[in-house]
């Protein structure tokens, strides 16, 4: 049963869930753990965060091309949380993966503030927020999770390596056969669905 002290992280798969779990865990427990011997250097974020202790919701989404959805239309899922964040901004934080990647430090501080664990002036001078970002970087997560497994239930075991991709916006082209007309169709539907809600369909720059 949900309690006033609980924090829920709500995402669809492949939207940076493990990254946010690592950031949230490190923010809430930044005093007890020295960065040189931090649990996240040897354990998966999923293993470090069985539950979180605030009744707040951080919802993070990604573009539809870059994620997996087993729970109905992607757009309904996103718009429901977007509406909740506008109605209760002190209870629901809506964040975008692309924004987290584009300006990680600013968005991370926003997350910490929302959680009620803002960084003090002394911590800022000591570079604590930047140190946590580096600790939770994709490079560290990928290295730590090359080995080991995560037990999702008594029957379901998943390799830790399966939880992580490169973390590159638009990396879907290396996994899904979404090119040409299919990509254009998804982009068009997304733009139509998001009209008037303050969201857009971020696309990675052409190389």
Protein model, in words:
- The protein is 39% helix and 11% strand.
- With 207 residues, it is of the alpha/beta class.
- The longest helix is centred in the middle third of the chain and has 14 residues, at 74-87.
- Helix 1 packs across helix 5.
- It contains nine helices and five strands.
- The model has no long low-confidence stretch (mean pLDDT 75).
- The strands form two sheets. It has a three-stranded parallel β-sheet with strand order 1-2-3, sandwiched between helices. The protein has a two-stranded antiparallel ribbon with strand order 4-5.
- It has helices spanning 17-28, 45-48, 74-87, 97-102, 104-115, 121-125, 128-135, 138-144, 181-193, and strands at residues 7-11, 56-61, 92-96, 149-151, 157-159.
- It has a single domain (7-193), classed as P-loop containing nucleotide triphosphate hydrolases (Rossmann fold).
Helix content bin: 25-40%
Strand content: 5-15%
Q: Which residues form runs of ≥5 with pLDDT under 50?
A: none
Quantity of strands, as a count: 5
Largest sheet: 3 strands, parallel
Briefly, what CATH class? Alpha Beta
CATH architecture: 3-Layer(aba) Sandwich
| Mean of residue pLDDT values | 75
Structural class: alpha/beta
Number of domains: 1
**SSE arrangement, N to C:** EHHEHEHHHHHEEH
Strand order of the largest sheet: 1-2-3
- C-alpha Rg, in Å? 17 Å
């Amino acid at each position: 049963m949900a309690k006033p002290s609980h924090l829920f992280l709500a995402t669809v798969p492949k939207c940076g869930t493990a990254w946010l779990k690592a950031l949230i865990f490190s923010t809430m427990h930044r005093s007890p753990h020295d960065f040189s011997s931090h649990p996240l250097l040897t354990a998966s974020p999923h293993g470090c965060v069985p539950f979180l202790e605030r009744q707040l919701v951080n919802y993070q989404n990604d573009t539809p091309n870059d994620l997996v959805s087993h729970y109905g239309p992607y757009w309904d899922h996103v718009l429901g949380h977007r509406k909740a964040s506008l109605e209760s901004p002190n209870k629901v934080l809506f964040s975008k993966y692309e924004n987290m990647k584009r300006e990680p430090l600013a968005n991370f501080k926003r997350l910490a503030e929302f959680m009620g664990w803002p960084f003090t002036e002394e911590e800022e001078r000591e570079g604590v927020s930047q140190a946590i970002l580096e600790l939770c970087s994709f490079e560290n997560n990928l290295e730590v999770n090359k080995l080991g497994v995560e037990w999702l239930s008594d029957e379901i075991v998943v390799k830790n390596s399966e939880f992580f991709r490169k973390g590159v916006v638009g990396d879907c082209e290396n996994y899904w056969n979404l090119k040409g007309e299919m990509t254009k169709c998804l982009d068009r539907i997304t733009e139509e669905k998001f009209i008037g809600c303050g969201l857009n369909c971020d696309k990675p720059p052409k190389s």
